[in-house]
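Appendix B. Raw example, untouched.
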Amino acid sequence: MSASKPQPLAIGVIGAGGIAAKLHLPQLQEIPGLTIAKLAGRKMDRLKLLSKRHGGEPVTDFAAVIDDPRIDGVVVATPHPLHVAWGIKALEAGKHVFMQKPLASTIEDADRFVAACEKSDRVVYCLPQLNFPAVMAIRDLIAEGALGKVSGAHSRFSHGGPEIYYAEVRDLLGEEPLMPGEKLWFFEAGEAAVGALFDMGVYAIARLVAVLGSAMRVMGMAAILDKPSQVEDTASLLIEFESGTIATAETGWCDGARTGRLTVHGSFGRAEQYGYRPTTAKLYQLASKTREDVPPTESDVDCSKYRFQNAHEQWVECIRNGTRPELETPQAARHITEIMLAGLKSAKSGQAVALKTRLK
């Protein structure tokens, strides 16, 4: 018997620029039964090129995506401060929403978005890259007690900066290279509102929340070390979780070798995910309780329980099955936004900042 055809879905993209060209559209195009209906952006020449490659009507009016009755779901890929406004409009129009990270640059916007989501029956997907088998398997190890009492964790996600990302995007779109001294919106406080912490640190913090749960208190330090930026290009947070675990999250735009890492330490051992490999992790466990120099045992973590999907596949599968993401929720995105804002506040004041909300 042949498999049934997947439910057809039409998707629109708001803010169809660099990240849509590099990530959203190629991944969406791979999903059976899905069509790109409209691409909305500021630059018509880009839109026409993307339309030729991936389909979809190119428009410069973002509202045209919201108002199109054919469209089932909307990918919001605008600059950070515009995410929530368009996400809420999409929900109010009855669309499913895929929200590009970070959720918002203010807690007021994050609260408004969560409130709108809780009034809606639509599938909302935030914080991509949490459903990696390695992350889920480490979460299982903690729950099963394989690490013992979790005492600490460290997560770092960083790269060489937005200018490297934009050079790749311009190559991808066949555009002229960046000119020396050319301004990028990522570096402008008025356009981006926030810096490396929200751009890359969101991944590090999201993984810590995924495996450790709710945070209680944050201390942070942030700096501008190397980029022509009005917002931080480097940041580190010290986070106290409800469980008592103390974790560190590091990020930056000054890491030319690029780093992606999650490590969780416990009284019986530690688990590690290195690099950007989504399906592999290592487990190191205590080999002797009486000999300090006996090395821990090393083994591969069994990640096979979880099927690897890119974020768009998971979103579409939830829509078709009438389910909701387990980790990539608006509430989790709001909590992570509060952590990051608390980190920036602490960096200015030099004081720890208590968080007002917890995950349910």
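End of appendix B.
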